[in-house]
Specification:
Nucleotidyltransferase, domain 5, 41% helix, single chain, five-stranded mixed beta sheet, 19% strand, binds 5'-O-[(R)-(carboxyoxy)(hydroxy)phosphoryl]adenosine, alpha/beta, 10 helices, binds zinc ion
């Protein structure tokens, strides 16, 4: 089965074709970073308009790159939430309409399920069951993954997501949007030990996270030490990554998992990968990440997740539905009758 995947939940237009036998056939990604940079963050209306301008030529190119014709596409998958409603509507409307025109099924994919399954696009793949840590700009979640589509959220952020904390702290340090990669780069030149940032909620039981206090800590430290930006970046990164690691270790022990998936934008962070690989080796746990370019938003993960659902006979009706908020837990009941 060959599935066209469309991702437009935020500021990246991602298009891809996945073949259920051969894997990823072709993909293209257009980032709107330059468009939003002067505003210091994503402007939803501009994002929607830009998706509209880029999406159709991208779909045409990806079909051509895959060496296919439109008749060869067996299904269309699009992100139907969570995300910016206007941006989601662009991909959902076009995706649903193309499926109708091509007379093939369509499927609305949960963006975070896309992130969660992104490591399956690689040669070395995890096996169910496993623990997943999703760390993106909008979410931080620890998830028990029993099987495909069987997800149980074990813990999540009660305030800022990990990526959001990176972006907000980067702004405080005067770095340009999107802040995560810029802060990570600056941290490379800093001293991780000069300042000791708190590791929120690690001193009490449970698997929830709280990252909003770290940006205030960064602001106060900067006011007292205006020339210490690199050291602050390094101490902040150290605090976020170690907090994630401590909670992950706790969840791994509690669930006796042998495998861990780390995915979402922040999983591109090299310091995180260094610490998590070390932790995995210490505990005899195999750690899986997507390749760098599939850590952040992309069409390939949506095509893959959509393909898995279509293979199990799931598809949407003719209505076009998007959701700004959508819990991952609710997916477990979605096709329980098919499994
Ligand atoms: O998964 P993603 O593309 O979008 C959402 O679904 O939210 O994640 C984007 C987030 C941003 O907050 C960005 O700053 C962060 O991932 N990010 C990073 C790195 N690369 C991207 N954070 C830390 N280090 C990085 N290398
Ligand atoms: Zn994302």
């Amino acid at each position: 089965m060959r599935v066209l995947g469309i991702e437009t939940s935020c500021d990246e237009t991602g298009i891809a074709i996945v073949d259920s036998e051969k894997g990823l056939l072709a993909h293209e990604l257009y980032s709107q970073v330059a468009l939003h940079a002067e505003y210091g963050g994503v402007v939803p209306e501009l994002a929607s308009r830009d998706h509209i301008q880029k999406i159709l030529p991208m779909i045409e190119r990806v079909i051509e790159k895959a060496g296919l014709r439109t008749e060869d596409i067996d299904g269309v998958a699009y992100t139907s939430g969570p995300g910016l409603v206007g941006a989601l509507l662009v991909g959902a409307t076009l995706g649903r309409s193309l499926a109708y025109a091509w007379n093939v099924p369509a499927i609305g994919v949960h963006h975070m399920e896309g992130h969660l399954l992104a490591p399956f696009l690689e040669e070395r793949q995890p096996e169910f069951p496993f623990l997943a840590l999703l760390v993106s700009g909008g979410h931080t979640m620890l998830i028990d993954v029993e099987a495909f589509g069987k997800y149980r959220v074990l813990g999540e952020s009660v305030d800022d997501a990990a990526g959001e904390a990176f972006d907000k702290t980067a702004k405080i340090l005067g770095l340009s949007y999107p802040g995560g990669p810029a802060l990570a780069k600056l941290a490379l030149t800093g001293d991780r030990k000069r300042f000791k940032f708190p590791r929120p909620m690690t001193d009490r039981p449970g698997l929830d996270f709280s990252f909003s206090g770290l940006k205030t800590f960064a602001l106060n430290t900067l006011q007292e030490n205006p020339d210490a930006k690199a050291d602050i970046a390094a101490a902040f990164e150290d605090a976020v990554v170690n907090t994630l690691r401590i909670k992950c270790e706790r969840a791994l022990k509690e669930g006796m998992y042998r495998q861990l998936v780390v995915s979402g934008g922040v999983s591109a962070n090299l310091y995180l990968r260094e610490l998590f690989d070390k932790m995995g080796a210490e505990h005899g746990v195999d750690v899986f990440y997507p390749r760098q370019e599939f850590c952040t938003d992309n069409g390939a993960m949506i095509a893959f997740a959509g393909c898995q659902r279509l293979l199990r006979g799931e598809h949407v009706g003719l209505e076009i539905e998007v959701k700004a908020r959508w819990s991952l837990d609710s997916l477990s009941s979605r096709f329980s009758s098919d499994v």
